[in-house]
Structures are given as structure tokens and as C-alpha cells.
Input
Amino acid sequence: MPRKKKEPVSGVPPDAPTIDHASRAHAVLSASAAKRWLNCPPSARLNEQFPNTSSEYAEEGTAAHELCEYKVRKYLHERMERPQSEYYTEEIAQATDIYAEFVIGIIEEMKANGAEPMALVEEKLDYSHVAPSGFGTGDMIVIGKDAEGRGLLHIVDYKNGKGVFVDANHNPQMMLYAIGALRAYDFIYDVEIVRMSIVQPRLENISTCEMTVSELNAWAESIKPVALMAYEGKGEQHPGDWCRFCKAKPVCQACKDEALALCREDFLDLDAGAFNDTAAEESDMTAPYEADTQTAVFKQPGLIPLSELAEILPTLNRISSWIDAVFAFVSSEAINHGVPIPGYKVVEGRSKRVFTDTKAVVDTAVQNGYTDLYKQTLISLTEFEKMMGKKKFNELLGEFVAKPPGKLTLVPESDPREPADLTAAPEQEFAVLSDED
Ligand code: SF4
Output
């Protein structure tokens, strides 16, 4: 009698309803914002004062997560209607395939290690014993054994964005998910090792961090006081790269102080006046002297060494992002809510002419003897791949495919990507602003 193929155990019933990702509730101490409230505790309560707004990126992310969920559930033989979305491009299809393949690989590896893994998709995880009222939703939890037979918890999170590189290394979001998962499921396999992976295919980023359960528990103990402080809205504001998605940023006093302090203390002395008395006397002996307190005076004229610029780069990044946030916030107040902004007004920008009725345009042009109204373009590489299937595509067209080096970008040393080989891409020159620009 043929052996029945064993399927991975799933914690979700086969007829589980589709999860509405858009309505994923967020805790005050959400795992996704953990880096922020751990570094700036009052930000947790400050963010409550702002409405939840959605963006095209967020909607695309939600749609991509649904496709990830569908693909993994399909592998697990769990019923779920295939999600539909206008965001489903070939790129999203490939990115979610990479995620699903990664997750399936983990499950298959655990099965090969001799343990029937428990696989949980979109699992609500409660870590409120560490951070008050804390909970989050883990994209994928797999519990089984590693190659050495030790109890293994593997958590995987899909990141759809391609703007910010997300590293799994001691990532507090993943660590909080792991704490929640351990609390609920540790008893199953007596977990010793925790692996936390981030799959961010659109940045070719798959990173994994491994910790022992005792290391994770020690970290959990260490954050309890700051989590309590954050929950109570106490502590001091502390700007850093975690401000990026803080809704309070445009009106954050600490961000403003930091930005202005950099200018005030390091470069400018606004109170000194633009000219000293001697210069004024020399330029115009008859005019009464009045110190110009509006124009900046540079304390130390000269050129700034690169090393000094490098030192202020992280702050400049934050200030630039704060300035963007202030403009976006004030513009939204004025444009979306009609709030008057003193000294400013809302105007219409330039727009392009468009045809209102394409069919009528074509008909009219043809009736009047015009031809060659359409141009033909080659379908994209991914469209070819979709049309032929991966195997046929590689067989027929593989030899004509090349992957040019990506655009060179300067990133902080902490970025986990390998440094680029600059000698291999000499033609990529970064444009420096010049007089001609
Ligand atoms: S923007 Fe302000 S409140 Fe938000 S995390 Fe940064 S410092 Fe804290």
C-alpha cells in the first residue's frame, strides 16, 4: 500500500477566511514600530494623535502580502481565494514567488530533519508580557527541528518595499514576534534556537538572524522598563533613523531642535551681524551702521574636509527627511483640509494635454486620411517569461539575457550589502553638480 504523503501541520483550519490585511490592527507598542519606540519612548503615544493614512506603497504592500499568503496557503493545501489587485505586476509576482519558495524551503528542510513542522500563516502574536498590550501579526511561523535535532522556531517576514533596506540582524520587530511565538508555542518542540528572516526580494535581500532562546529572553527582560515607559507616554524624544515613519515627525520639537542646532551651533552665528564695524566703515563711511542680524555669518570660512562631511551625513539625512515631512504635512493641511498657511497659497501646477476620447481621436484621424497612428514596442523581459514559462524562456532566450550592474549608491557601512567593485563598473560616474547644471 503506497504511503500517504504527510503534509505539514497547519495551525489554521482549511476553511479559514481570507485575512483582511488592510484592517490589521496595530498595538500602541506595535512590533513594526519597535525600533522607534525603543529609541524614542514618547513617540508611541504621540503617534496615536495622528490619523492612519494609507499610501500607494502601503496598498501595494498589503496586496503583495495577500499574494504571499495565498501562495504559502496553497502549498499547505489551505483554502483561500486567489486575491486580485491592480498592483499585481510581474515584479510583484516574482517577489512573492521568492518569498513563497523561501518559506517552502524552510518547511521542507524541517521535514527532512525528521520533524513534522507546524506552519502558521498570518499568525497573531501576543508579546504583552514584555511590552504592555503588545501584539503583532507574523507573516510566517514555522516550528520544528534543525539539522542537529534542536527545537527550532523560524519566523519569516516579507518586505515589499524597495526604498529602505531592512536587515534581520537583531531586528526588534522580528524579536518581538519571536517572543510572542515562543510564549504561545514553545511547548510543542521545546524550542532552543530562533531564526528570524526578512525576505525583501525587490532589493535582493534575504537576511537571517539566529539567536538562542535564552539570548532572546534576556533581551526581552532588558526592554521591559523602556516598553513600560513608552506605553505610559513617558521618556525623552530622541531623533534618529527610526524617525523615518513617525507620524509626529513634521511637528516634532526634537527633530526641529536637532535640525536647527546643527546649523546654529556648527556653522552659523546669526547674532553676530554680517559685517564687523571696520568693514562697515570701510564700505560706506557716511551710512549709519546697523548690524545685519538676518544674514548668516560663517564662523570658520574655508572648505569642509570630507571626513567632517561624513560625520554629519547621518544627521543631514534625518534633517532632509524631516524637511520633506514638514513640507508634506503643511501642504496636506493646506490642500486637503483648506487650512490657511500664512504667507503661502495653493496654486495649480503645470499639466499636460490629454485626449479625452481615444477612439474618437483615431476615427477622426483615419477619416481625414492620417495613418501610422500606432507604434509597436517589444514586450518586456518579464512578459516574455510569463508568456513562455521560465524553462522555455531560459532555453530560447536565456543567452540573450544580461543583468547590468545596479546603480551605484552611497549607503552607511551598516548596510548588509556587499561593497560594489568600483573597478568593474568604471563607466558609472556619479554626477556632481557643476556650473553647467
Ligand atoms: S520624529 Fe520625534 S517623536 Fe518621532 S521618533 Fe523621531 S524624535 Fe521621536
